[in-house]
Amino acid sequence: MQEDAVHVRVSAMQEDARGETQRTVMETDGRHAVRRGKHYVRYADDSIVQGALVHTTLKLGQDEAWLFRRGAIEHEQRFIMGRETRGTYRTPYGEVALGVRTQALSVCEEAACTVVSLSYDLYAAGEWQSHHILRIEVTKRRTGENGENG
User: Fold this and answer.
1) In this structure, which of 58, 62, 108, 119 has its CB flanked by the most CB atoms within 10 Å?
2) Which bin fits 107, alpha (ψ -120 to 50), beta or left (φ > 0)?
3) d(Cα 20, Cα 31) in Å, to the nearest integer?
4) pLDDT higher than threshold 60 for residue 145
5) pLDDT of 25 above 80
6) How many other CB atoms are there within 10 angstroms of residue 39's CB atom?
7) How far is the C-alpha of 118 from the C-alpha of 102, rounded, in Å?
8) Is the dihedral of CA 116, 121, 125, 126 positive or negative?
9) What is the pLDDT of residues 47-64, one digit of tens each?
10) Residues 37, 61: contact at Cβ < 8 Å?
C-alpha cells in the first residue's frame, strides 16, 4: 500500500451538558493511503495526553469511519451514519465504556486534499456527555517539503 506524506489538521468543537463550548485545533504530519476504497490516515498526537504521544489511525469510508488510538491511551471507536456504536477508552487509571451516535459523516476528496466532516453525540457509561463536530483536513505535502521526496 503506497503511503503519501501529509499534513493533518483536526478542528474540533465540543458542547457539554451545561452548554459550554470548547474549540481545539491540532496540526501534525502523518501518512495517508487508499486501499480498497478506504482512506487510512496515520499520525502521532501529543495533544491528548500531556507529554505523551498517542498513535492514531483513521480508517475512512463513505458511510462509516473507524478511530484507533494506541499509546498512553487505548481507544477504538466506530462511527456509522445514523447509528449508535460502542467503544472503550482505556487509560492507565481504568477504562470507560463509550457510545457515539453519528449524526453526520462525509468524506470529500480533492486532488491534494481529503476533508472529513463528522458530527456525533458522545455517551459515557450510557449517559449523554457532549456533542462533537470534527473537521479533519488531510493535505498532501509537496515534493521536497520537510525533506520529503513526494
Assistant:
1) 58
2) beta
3) 34
4) no
5) yes
6) 19
7) 8
8) negative
9) 777 777 889 999 998 889
10) yes
Residue 58 β-bridge partners: 41, 67
Find the length of the chain.
150
If one counts every other C-beta atom within 10 angstroms of the C-beta of residue 105, the result is 21
For residue 119, what is its C-alpha cell?
458530527
Cα radius of gyration (the chain): 16
Query: Rounded to 5, what percent of the chain is helix, strand, coil?
Result: 0, 75, 20
Average pLDDT, the chain: 89
Element (H, E) at 25: strand 21-35
Burial of 18 (0-12, 13-18, 19+ CB in 10 A): exposed
State how far Cα 81 lies from the chain centre: 15
Per-residue cell: 98 = 463509550
Cα–Cα distance measured from residue 72 to residue 54, given in angstroms and rounded to the nearest whole number: 6
Predicted TM-score (pTM) of the model is: 0.84
- Residue-wise pLDDT for 64-105, tens only, equals 999 999 988 899 999 999 999 999 889 888 898 999 999 999
CA–CA distance, 56 with 75 (Å, rounded to integer):
9
So what's the pLDDT on residue 122?
Answer: 96
